[in-house]
UniProtKB/TrEMBL annotation, chain A:
Entry similarity comment: Belongs to the UPF0229 family.
Official protein name in the record: UPF0229 protein OOZ53_17405
Region (Disordered): 55-108
Coiled coil: none
Species of provenance: Hoeflea poritis
InterPro entries: UPF0229 (IPR006698)
HAMAP family xrefs: UPF0229
TrEMBL record, chain B:
Domain SpoVR-like C-terminal positions: 451-504
Protein name: SpoVR family protein
Domain SpoVR protein-like N-terminal: from-to ranges: 24-447
NCBIfam families, per database record: PRK11767.1
Signal peptide positions (record): none
Alphabetical list of InterPro entries matching this protein: Spore_V_R, SpoVR-like_C, SpoVR_N, Ycgb-like
Upper lineage: Bacteria, Pseudomonadati, Pseudomonadota, Alphaproteobacteria, Hyphomicrobiales
PANTHER family: STAGE V SPORULATION PROTEIN R
Length: 440, 505
């Protein structure tokens, strides 16, 4: 006798635990691969995950094995073409891994480097490891509370949608058993019996008597069924929910980008990469962060995500318009008393002459005191990057912003010259600054 | 065989409906076909097998099973994850096909069949695994003597639970350290010659409890307060005495560490024991790869042909099965880029078919080489006797015939590390048969394939240095790099210095 079992619906991924252990073990290599990946390609196309190569020796499983380099051994092999006993066959030059009749008997696994693919989730987890929105729970958050229902047992009152059927039926069954409510089956059986008796055309005295007894019995059963209901209001139970307050982080992130003509394809591309990274990071880490996209030329406009990243526009450059727009949106929708506000701005540093002063004014007087963190990223030429290697040097906007940075500790600015810079800069901007925070 | 179909059979075929038609399978057809196979296996081949449990799984689950050395449950360890990701990469790239089945030496005998298989393939797989391997597991003396088919699943369940609890209590990395070290010694964690009685699950639990109680009662640093031996004059006698007490020399390193390591805690000893038991469970499989696969291949070949003769499977299905069968028993030549050693399916199957031939239609040469069985007609009896009482090495030594050596164009070469040339020592001719056979058998002998390492001495009351000895055969030394890292693992488990000396045999 054979038994057949269908296991296809059993949970798969039985090896997930082992896989996690393995990843932990090769963590340093995985992290290196992730860094490398960001340097060489856009983060937006990480759908496929990432291939990771781990040197074989770091995950070797050693055992006592015979050396290939010493001693005398005999092999038997197949497919002899022309050899005769006593023939000499030249060994392949490398010595190892030759196929001149050698049998891979105890080599087990190959000594190649080990290659595998990270899933997208594993990739992103490692990618954003140790990153945090700075100062997220600083201001006024404790007051903002949302109430959420939590299961809290059962109650005897409630709305019909919350009826707990299992409990209700269990209570009803117990009550029916206790009160000896006649079962429908019994009633039906009795009815059939009566029906049979009634079909007899000329019943005897005895049968008539029996019939009347049966009728009485049936009446009694029906009466008891009526008195003892199948489900009584007493039986009904409802799921009970308690409303509990839950503190919630309310945060909004502004992404400001210069899309004017002075931003070439390269600059725009770098800025976009930065924002894509930021976007991915935020939407992954914080389920409840609002995102606002503002792009500007000589005037600024709030746009949706799609337009922000992919649509084209040209015009002059007036940076302050973006700040004004951001301020307007804050006033309209995100009062600073209720929201944590984060702003990230990307630009090539070009600005309408004299406008940078206005930017500083807006920042100093209004935006900076309202927002938790302001990150400014300047996209520069690779040649320029060499030249501007010091933080002090820069054109107008950079110099003016340096003053802001000097005044406000929650203002950060960085330069990006090539795709490879994005990730390190990004990490620097959003690294968990626990030690520093404690210092304050 | 299909070619030897008699007229009676041919008429029988016309009368019978095939059991299935087309590629799709259902559980109902599986059951019907299973019953038909079982009838051939029981009545015709007279096989002896455990009750079968056939489980249908998906390819993901097959990958899962691969990574835990084919067992349905296994404790968790990163190395299984490593095998899983590497298998997965290969599979996704198409570089590797998955096996059609995995079969487990348990009672009931569990075989996993892939859902992707066509009905014809399921037929082949059932005949191969559920009857071929199953019969071998149940009857071969190595399996009977060394493994507990009935208890293995319970034991693995226990092992997994135990290791998970250890991880909770002592931390994953702490447990991992012990398992890493034990895995490195796994090939040297088996008894080759004697088998201690295996305790039942309950006894195991009780012993563990006892150990814990003992641990609670004794103080482990008691060891360090025992005064060392003063006189070296008595040293010799003492050494003999302690060797006797520790049952030295001991070749089962894990067993020795489990019992005598001065630093291990009770749970760590138990982990060693688990890994040692699993190694022991797989030890017969390592020694019978060729026979086991040969037996299963022979059985499926016989059964599907019998089914076809009876008209129970269609010509199309038979062709599909034979196509697969031919791929499985393909043996590339030594100079073929696909060559990676001897294919155990190919040689095993060829040898068993050859035994059948020798019994039925022997030639002069066969009568000379195999006087006992040549022409005896009872090929079933001869094969079953071989399946039950041999392992790869002895089977080849006994049954590899000149005909098979010729068929495969076998030859033997000798490889001396100092010599820039291989020397051909024998080919498939009159003078070479015996040499080839001997070398071939030796190539399947685990005791020459695996290094021979023993614990020879340890002075528990002195410096506690553990002395190992590797016996070099034919001047083959150990791989230095591997040796160093494995000894590092050994040191973790022993807690003190470990020395390895290599001596010539």
């Amino acid at each position: 006798m054979g038994h057949f079992v269908d296991r296809r619906l059993n949970p798969k991924d039985k090896s997930l635990g082992n896989r996690r252990r393995f990843l932990k073990r090769v963590r340093s290599h995985v992290k290196k691969a992730v860094d490398e990946a960001v340097r060489t390609r856009g983060i937006a196309d990480t759908d496929s995950g990432e291939e990771v190569v781990v040197p074989a020796d770091s995950i070797a499983e050693p055992s006592f094995r015979h050396s290939r380099k010493a001693g005398r051994r005999d092999y038997a092999s197949t497919g002899n073409k022309s050899y005769q006993a006593g023939d000499k066959i030249k060994k392949p030059p490398s010595g190892e891994g030759g196929d001149g009749g050698k049998e891979g008997s105890d080599s087990g696994e190959g000594e190649d480097d080990f290659l595998f693919v990270l899933s997208r989730d594993e990739f992103l987890d490692l990618f954003f490891e140790d990153m945090e929105l700075p100062n997220l729970v600083k201001r006024g958050l404790k007051q903002i509370e949302v109430t959420k229902p939590f299961r809290a047992g059962f109650s005897i009152t409630g709305s019909p949608s919350n009826i707990n059927v299992e409990r209700t039926m269990r209570n009803a069954l117990g009550r029916r058993l206790a009160l000896k409510r006649p079962k429908d089956l019994e009633v039906r059986a009795l009815r059939e019996e009566i029906f049979k008796m009634e079909k007899i055309s000329k019943p005897t005295q005895e049968q008539r008597l029996e019939l009347s007894v049966l009728h009485e019995l049936l009446e009694d059963l029906l009466r008891r069924q009526k008195v003892i209901s199948y489900i009584d209001p007493l039986d009904v139970r409802y799921n009970y929910f308690e409303m509990r307050p839950e503190p919630r982080e309310r945060a909004v992130m502004f992404c400001l980008m210069d899309v004017s003509a002075s931003m070439g394809e390269r600059e725009k591309d770098l800025a976009k990469r930065f924002f894509v990274l930021l976007h991915l990071f935020l939407s992954r880490r914080y389920k409840s962060v609002d995102l606002v996209f503002v792009r500007h030329t000589h005037n600024a406009k709030e746009v949706d995500e799609e337009t922000f990243f992919y649509a084209r526009e040209t015009g002059g450059t007036v940076v302050s318009t973006a700040l004004v727009e951001a301020r307007q949106i804050i006033e309209d929708r995100y009062p600073a008393s209720e929201w944590n506000i984060y702003i990230a701005q990307a630009s090539d540093g070009e600005n309408y002459s004299g406008d940078s002063k206005k930017c500083v004014q807006i920042l100093n007087e209004e935006l900076m005191k309202d927002c938790q963190y302001f990150a400014y990223v300047e996209i520069v030429d690779e040649a320029e990057a060499e030249f501007l290697n010091s933080e002090e040097n820069g054109i107008e906007l950079w110099r003016e912003y340096r003053r802001v940075a000097g005044r406000w500790p929650n203002f950060a600015m960085k330069r990006i010259a090539r795709p490879g810079d994005i990730y390190p800069v990004f990490r620097e901007l959003f690294a968990k600054k626990t030690a520093e925070d404690n210092g304050h | 065989m299909a070619t030897r179909t008699t007229r009676a059979n041919r008429t029988a075929r016309k009368n019978k409906q095939p059991l299935f038609d087309g590629a799709d399978w259902t559980f109902d057809t599986l059951r019907v076909v299973y019953d038909a196979i079982e009838e051939v296996a029981r009545k015709d081949l007279e096989l002896d097998f455990y009750t079968n449990q056939i489980e249908i799984i998906s390819s993901e689950q097959m990958l899962d099973a691969y990574s835990s050395i084919g067992m349905p449950l296994m404790y968790r360890h990163w190395s299984f994850g490593k095998h899983f990701v590497s298998n997965e990469v290969h599979y996704r790239k198409g570089a590797m096909g998955l096996a059609y089945e995995i079969v487990i030496n348990s009672d009931p005998c569990i075989s996993y069949c892939m859902e992707e298989n066509t009905m014809a393939m399921q037929t082949l797989v059932m005949a191969h695994a559920a009857f071929g391997h199953n019969h071998f597991f149940k009857t071969n003396h190595l399996f009977r003597q060394w493994t507990d088919a009935a208890g293995i699943l319970d034991y693995l369940e226990y092992a997994r639970g135990f290791i998970a609890r250890c991880e909770e209590r002592h931390g994953v990395s702490e447990v991992e350290r012990v398992i890493d070290a034990a895995h490195a010694l796994m090939p040297h964690g088996v008894f080759r010659y004697r088998r201690p009685r295996s305790p039942s699950l309950r006894e195991e639990r009780e012993r563990r409890k006892e150990r814990r109680e003992y641990e609670e009662q004794t103080v482990s640093y008691l060891w360090s307060t025992v005064p060392g031996s003063e006189h070296s004059a008595k040293a010799d006698a003492e050494m003999r005495e302690r060797k006797r007490e520790l049952h030295l020399p001991e070749e089962n390193l894990l067993y020795f560490l489990e019992h005598y390591s001065p630093v291990l805690r009770p749970w760590q000893r138990e982990v060693l024991r688990i890994i040692r038991n699993i190694a022991q469970y797989f030890y017969p499989q390592k020694q019978t790869k060729l026979m086991n696969e040969g037996c299963a291949t022979f059985v499926h070949f016989h059964i599907v042909n019998a089914l076809h003769e009876k008209g129970l499977i269609t010509d199309g299905a038979l062709l599909e099965i034979l196509h697969s069968h031919t791929n499985v028993i393909f043996q590339p030549d030594f100079d073929d880029p696909r060559f990676s050693g001897i294919n155990p399916y190919a040689l095993g199957f060829a040898m068993m078919r050859d035994i059948q031939r020798i019994c039925q239609t022997p030639e002069e040469e066969d009568r000379e080489w195999f006087p006992d069985i040549a022409g005896s007609k009872d090929w079933k009896g001869v094969l079953k006797e071989a399946w039950a009482n041999y392992r790869d090495e002895s089977f080849i030594q006994q049954f590899l015939s000149p005909a098979v050596i010729r068929q495969f164009h076998m030859f033997a070469v000798s490889d001396n590390a100092d010599d820039p040339y291989y020397t051909v020592t024998g080919i498939h001719d009159e003078r070479g048969f015996r040499k080839v056979r001997e070398v071939f058998a030796q190539n399947h002998d685990l005791s020459t394939l695996e290094p021979y390492i023993q614990v020879v001495d340890v002075d528990l009351l002195g410096d506690r240095q553990l002395k190992l000895q590797h016996t070099r055969r034919n001047g083959i030394s150990l791989d230095e790099e591997q040796k160093e890292s494995t000894i590092a693992h050994l040191r973790t488990l022993w807690g003190y210095e470990v020395k390895m000396e290599e001596v010539a045999a």
